[in-house]
């Protein structure tokens, strides 16, 4: 039985985009569906997503709504994020990302991580692709959403990790040890690398194999400052996040109190657009909108939709250009096959000439 039929059976209208199921529910509106193979799905992800995260109810974590353990294809119903992932920013160096938006985006993500860690959890696979972006229609703002909890688990300070979990460029130095003790500090290091990638559009260390990455990391004492990062206060924050010694590495809660977010310079950097969006949220709450949160009214947490849209539009333009090039190449190839025979004559215009020549 097709999975699409299964979703329809449970009342979800289906639209398939690049193997990602975007569905519509009368109760929940547009949602996302993650499909599992019966023998491979991770119960821990379900337990964390449906249970613990629902209790946390944090704006900057992707909400997981329902798990349906049906036949061959168990599936997880999740909040839908409509503006792709952080990678949309990280891979487009040609577009300027304003400092006020970067600061607010980092603040959102750190707040999501702070709440996640407050439940005594460690994510173990923080990276650009696992932080989604969502703009509620008509809101003018964008929320970051920490997602993909397949590697997440409760903190265990006794038993070492016996298998690889994480993505190589984002892995902390201690993760390359034999049977390492994994703490929440691996998430903090990964956030540091995530922010580094957002700003510089590259990784500080990125070897192809885990053995090579581990060897390179063992030769370093710290991540070197790249020329792209001019702001001393920003670099101080990143250094604290990417500290090689996990005992010295700061927590998400401590990072939120860093001068990069609290200094007079940070407050002065708030844009008029951020202030306007926050003011509209405060007014909406006074008018009875119960969905408004403290973060919606705080301009230092506001990421304007207009800024993220630039990255999405540019990516769409680049994809369209690539599609046009491929289409033109295919058309040229097709025309050549139609118009020319084995001897190189135009078979449409020179049919009689070919006939005379061959005879």
Automatic annotation (TrEMBL):
<protein>
    <submittedName>
        <fullName>Putative CAMK family protein kinase</fullName>
    </submittedName>
</protein>
<dbReference type="Pfam" id="PF00069">
    <property type="entry name" value="Pkinase"/>
</dbReference>
<dbReference type="GO" id="GO:0005524">
    <property type="term" value="F:ATP binding"/>
</dbReference>
<feature type="coiled-coil region">
    <location>
        <begin position="309"/>
        <end position="339"/>
    </location>
</feature>
<dbReference type="GO" id="GO:0005634">
    <property type="term" value="C:nucleus"/>
</dbReference>
<keyword id="KW-0175">Coiled coil</keyword>
<dbReference type="InterPro" id="IPR000719">
    <property type="entry name" value="Prot_kinase_dom"/>
</dbReference>
<keyword id="KW-0808">Transferase</keyword>
<dbReference type="InterPro" id="IPR011009">
    <property type="entry name" value="Kinase-like_dom_sf"/>
</dbReference>
<dbReference type="GO" id="GO:0004674">
    <property type="term" value="F:protein serine/threonine kinase activity"/>
</dbReference>
<keyword id="KW-0418">Kinase</keyword>
<dbReference type="GO" id="GO:0044773">
    <property type="term" value="P:mitotic DNA damage checkpoint signaling"/>
</dbReference>
<feature type="domain" description="Protein kinase">
    <location>
        <begin position="2"/>
        <end position="261"/>
    </location>
</feature>
<dbReference type="InterPro" id="IPR008271">
    <property type="entry name" value="Ser/Thr_kinase_AS"/>
</dbReference>
